[in-house]
Amino acid sequence: MKYENALQRAIKGRLERAMELAELFGLLIIGIGTVAAMGVLIWHMVQSDGVTLTDLLLMFLYLEIFAMVGQYLKAGQLPVRFPLYIAMVSIARDLILRAGANTELHLLASAGAIVLIALGVLIIRFGQAKYPSNTDERRVEEAK
């Protein structure tokens, strides 16, 4: 029994380490891909001698991806808010890209989606402020 538990702990430790390395490798690939995409976008902007609003929104999306990677590396977890921010900017960028082809229904649906996502962000922020998950944050809130 004693050796079986030690073997299980050793296997579990190695599997956890392998998963951590796989996560780091995935984050590295995401970071490299984002840098490459941003480089291509900058190159296209230089070649076209102009910057459009959609270019700026796309750069903002890339920066949000960098922020997500950085937050994951710092805290080891990813807040749900980051993908929601990316979704809102993506919908806004889609609206701008299809400015001439948008129907009234598409505009209303997109605006409604942005409003619903923004409400979701507000609810999440309220929940995090009112009911923090970290016990240290709870102690700080209770001391106030």
Automatic annotation (TrEMBL):
Topology term for the membrane: Multi-pass membrane protein
Stored InterPro entries: P_starv_induced_PsiE, P_starv_induced_PsiE-like
Primary site of residence: membrane
Chain coiled-coil ranges: none
Membrane-traversing stretches: 21-45, 51-70, 82-101, 107-124
Superkingdom in the source lineage: Bacteria
Location in the cell: Cell inner membrane
Biological process (GO), any one: cellular response to phosphate starvation
Gene Ontology CC terms: plasma membrane
Keywords: Cell membrane, Membrane, Transmembrane, Transmembrane helix
Pfam family, one: PsiE
Family indicated by similarity: Belongs to the PsiE family.
PANTHER family listed in its UniProt record: PROTEIN PSIE
Protein name: Protein PsiE
